[in-house]
Amino acid sequence: MKTMSCKQLGGACEQSFQAKTFEELVEQSKLHAMEMFMQQDEGHLEAMQKIQALMKDPEATKAWYDAKEQVFNALAED
Question: What's the rounded Cα separation, in Å, for the pair 26 and 24?
Fold first, then answer.
């Protein structure tokens, strides 16, 4: 298992996510983002706006995803 925080993934808090794969971690992060959206958390809404703007450019989105995955892969096992 490896751990990354919401903030490390581009979010707004120190909520941590643990997973065996980066894809599992991303799914946990998405669920957290939905919860924060439902709560209208200002910091998370700002972070979501930045990611939504990034997602308008497929190359930028892929570069962002690949960079975050590299960080995950470089982490030591918990």
Answer: 5
State how far the Cα of 70 lies from the Cα of 4, in Å rounded to an integer.
12
Q: What percent of the chain has pLDDT over 70?
A: 100
Contact by Cβ (8 Å): 54, 37: no
Query: Burial level of 46, CB count in 10 A (0-12/13-18/19+)?
Result: exposed
Give the whole-angstrom CA distance, residue 69 versus residue 27: 13
Q: Can you tell me the mean pLDDT for 41-64?
A: 95
pLDDT at residue 26 in the model: 95
State the angle between helix axes of 58-74 and 42-54 in degrees (0 to 180), rounded to the nearest 10: 120
If you average pLDDT over residues 45-53, what whole number do you get? 94
Q: What is the dihedral of CA 5, 21, 46, 16, to 10 degrees?
A: -20
